[in-house]
Amino acid sequence: MSSPSPQPPKKIGVYMTLDLLSPIKNIDGINTPNKASRIWFLLVLVISFFLALKISNGDFVMVSICTFIFSTLLLNLGWILIINFSNNKTPILLTDLLYKKEILEQE
């Protein structure tokens, strides 16, 4: 009996999926941070910057220091939660080349 052909994995890019918690597998086969982690990073930087700007009354040095402190704390807490929610998710392949490479390795 021939085994059924494997289904192609979910892709990103043109076919942007909404699975925010799945890791993204790069060309080297390494799981890189998922989309939720990347969105969290940008969100934390923006929130930390505006919070620091309000607290420091526009002093550039204090804005930099406060942004660094707030973002460090918030990023660590958020990434710990994201990692807990994203355990056992199947990776999303970065390119079609990875899918073809995995098929060739299975044969």
Radius of gyration, Cα only, in angstroms? 19 Å
Largest pleated sheet: 3 strands, mixed
- Number of beta-strand segments: 3
Q: What's the tally of helices? A: 3
Shape: elongated
Mean pLDDT: 77
Order of helices and strands: EEHHEH
Spatial gap, N to C terminus: 15 Å
As a percent range, the share of helical residues equals 55-70%
Task: Give the strand line-up of the largest sheet.
Answer: 2-1-3
Q: Could you tell me the strand content as a percent range?
A: 5-15%
**Uncertain residue ranges:** none
Content-based structural category: mainly alpha
Q: What would you say this structure looks like, in words?
A:
The protein is mainly α. The protein has a domain at 33-87. It has helices at residues 35-56, 60-85, 96-106; strands at 24-25, 31-32, 92-93. The protein has a 3-stranded mixed β-sheet with strand order 2-1-3. Strand 1 and strand 2 (31-32) form a beta hairpin. The two termini are 15 Å apart.
Features:
mainly alpha, 3-stranded mixed β-sheet, 107 residues, single chain
